Amino acid sequence: MTTLNLHGNLLDDHFAAELAQVIGQNPILHKIDISKNPIGPKGAKCILDVLIEKNQTLSSLGDLDLNDMMGVRVREELRQALQLNNSSHDKKKAFIEQLTSETRTKFVDDHDLTQGNDKQEKAVSQSKQAAYPLLKPVMFTNQND
């Protein structure tokens, strides 16, 4: 089985966490349709983490725009992770290494980036950044302008 259709089954964050485990252990699945399910940011993040760290074969999660509860940012990160899966494994590995090295140069654990202006503002630790890896900035535009 290479395709699994779970469209519109009222699946939640708990299910998404379990699905993430399956995705991490299954190199056969290429398409899983999770569209139109109430999966929130926590469940989507579980799937995102597995896509980035363990899975190189999944290429589609269905129409993610139908999953309003995920949020715009997580949906975009999922799309980008799937695009990396569609590219070669070496390209994905190089991208993740580049992202990690850029993160290390921009933020240093517990150092004050304000250079004495406000001692209460501390740099974000790498562990906090790793908890929510933004692959690429999401741009918002106002359609009414």
What secondary-structure arrangement, pairings included, does this model have?
Elements: E1 3-5, H1 13-25, E2 31-33, H2 41-53, H3 72-86, H4 89-106, H5 126-130
Parallel strand pairs: 1-2
Structure description:
The protein is mostly helical and 145 residues long. It is built from five helices and two strands, in the order βαβαααα. The protein has one domain (3-130). The radius of gyration is 17 Å and the shape is globular.
Features:
145 residues, mainly alpha, 2 strands
Radius of gyration: 17 Å
| Overall geometric form | globular
Query: Can you write the helix and strand succession as a string?
Result: EHEHHHH
Query: Helix segment count?
Result: 5
Q: Can you tell me the number of structural domains?
A: 1
Give the percentage of residues in beta strands.
under 5%
The total beta strand count reads 2
Can you summarize the main beta sheet? 2 strands, parallel
Distance between the termini: 47 Å
Q: Order of strands in the sheet with the most strands? A: 1-2
- Percent helix: 40-55%
State the secondary-structure class: mainly alpha
List segments where confidence is low: pLDDT < 50 over at least 5 consecutive residues. 105-110, 112-125
Mean pLDDT across the residues is 78
How is this structure best summarized?
With 145 residues, the chain is mainly alpha-helical.
